[in-house]
Design goal:
Keywords: DNA-binding, Sigma factor, Transcription, Transcription regulation. It is built from nine helices and no strands. By secondary structure, the protein is mainly α. The chain has one domain: Rna Polymerase Sigma Factor, Chain: A. Helix 2 packs antiparallel against helix 3 and helix 5 packs antiparallel against helix 6. It is globular, with a radius of gyration of 17 Å.
């Protein structure tokens, strides 16, 4: 039995679930926060989505079959929760998902948790100009250095499609950053 499968067994065992879940939180909280933050942009929104992600993980862990790596499963839930959050907010505000993302980027300078400079802001604007799938692929590859194989599990698509999406995203970002 590998250590991951032992950990999953502890997460699924009512006697050890609480302790194991606290370990899971400590292991993945920060990485998932930054993954979510890159998608939803705002710190407060990222906190909310992270909380929703871990609630969903806690409620669903008994159904985890181990067909993917645990962290791939966690990232998939975090990604889906982030996308759902954006769609729900955009619908509530009666704007498109893209408009919602652009508003979030425009509000980034006012975010007390944003520590970037002008260049960071411009990069975030460039990323926000991409279609959602390209944003996800770019962020996961560029910032999180996630392998295409793992990304394919998380996003449920082929490695070839992900490589193409990343290449296109990089070209679009380069174009955005070099235009005046």
């Amino acid at each position: 039995m590998t250590s991951e499968s032992q950990f999953i067994t502890r997460l699924q065992n009512p006697a050890s679930k609480e302790t194991a879940f606290r370990e899971l939180l400590n292991l993945y909280k920060e990485r998932l926060y930054w993954h979510i933050r890159k998608i939803v942009v705002s710190h407060d929104d990222a906190d909310d989505v992270l909380q929703n992600t871990f609630i969903k993980v806690y409620r669903s862990i008994d159904n985890f079959k181990g067909e993917s790596k645990l962290y791939s499963w966690l990232y998939r839930i975090a990604t889906n929760e982030s996308i759902t959050f954006i769609k729900k907010n955009a619908k509530r505000l009666q704007i498109s998902d893209e408009e919602h993302q652009n508003n979030a980027i425009n509000n980034l300078q006012a975010d007390v948790y944003f520590e970037g400079d002008e260049i960071q802001l411009k990069l975030q604007q460039a990323i926000a100009s991409l279609p959602q799938k390209q944003q996800l692929v770019f962020n996961m590859k560029y910032f999180d250095n996630i392998k295409y194989k793992d990304m394919a599990e998380i996003l449920d698509t082929s490695e070839g499609a992900l490589k193409a999406s990343y290449h296109i995203a990089v070209k679009k970002i380069e174009g955005f950053l070099t235009e005046d």
